[in-house]
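lol ok so funny story. i was supposed to be doing the assay writeup but got distracted and ended up predicting the structure for this chain instead. priorities right. anyway since i did it might as well share w the group, maybe its usefull for someone
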Amino acid sequence: MRIGFAYDSAYPWFKGGIEKRKFLIMNALKNAGHEVHAFTMFREGMPSDEFTYKGIHYHCCGSAMPTSAMYRNGRRNISWPLKYATLLDLKIWKYRFDLFDAEAFPFLHIPKLAAYARLTGAKFVVTWAEVWDRNYWESYLPTIGLLGYVAEKISARLSTQSIAISSATKGKMVEVLKVPQRKITVFPAAIDGKEIGNILKRKIKKSDKFVVIGRLVPEKRVDMAIMAVAGTGAELIIIGTGPERLKLLALAKKLGLEKKVRIEDIQEREAVLRHICEARGMLMFSAREGLSIVSIEALALGTPVIIVRSTSLTKEIRRHCYTVDERDLSGSISRLLNNKKSMLYSPNIDRRRILEEFSAERSEQVYKKILDD
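and the output, tada:
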């Protein structure tokens, strides 16, 4: 197969969950002998606007905005996806593919790709990490939220087939976007088994610290993680960047946790995985998650993932996690730390099952089936 992928950011030059998942899928398809192309935006560290990395052919449609400009007032800057959608034409029409997969969000590029697929005969797949209903759109973007919702609904009708990264996302596609179930494939690919195995070969000692990894935006509820470690004596390592950074540092200072809470920018891959391995647990209280690759990686590495009932994780992941009382976060964490028989010291995680369920190695099987249908 000759397969194209489209998203405005690419891993490892932008270290987001969607980007990492897409890279794992492309890498698995390339390893299976397929020709893989990625259409993205140029970022610092890339060798040129046309290059091959680990056997994947990259085509940059223009220069990405600086990461610092990605958000305005805590909301995604619409100029970035608009630029990508506008410049995509300059690259894509030179090529022909058997199948083309585009990330749904932020939707502006989907109509162009649908037209491209129709005119060239390619199967067109749209991958959905999240689905927002009208109420969420209008609370997120009070002035133009309705337009975002309309763009989302239109995008859901333009693909040959849709891929949902979890059963929860599929459910929302059916409920909110009215996509027929037969047109949705659930594919929760998230981890590289070889990478996980290499880390597990090392003997990394646990310490009384917890880790949070993700964008520093309100929906991730990192403030809850800071409050959870208050009074426990444990450290909290927060890995990520975003508009909430100063607010979170101020909260840590207010709680007297300046020496216990540390915020670090997204690091090299090995350093991130080491932080996960060293931690007693990962705190995942996010109110908005598509699949949460870092949670799956933590479980695969044997590090417990601690959630609250209002956490947005899908059921595929929740069943492997440990739920604490949202009304008594600090007390719950303290009791776990003080009990040497708790899951923090003897986690009961079926790592083999995690690796089988969420491995990207199933990519060829999934895409071949879509192409043959």
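The longest strand covers residues 35-42. The chain has a mean pLDDT of 91.
back to the writeup now i swear
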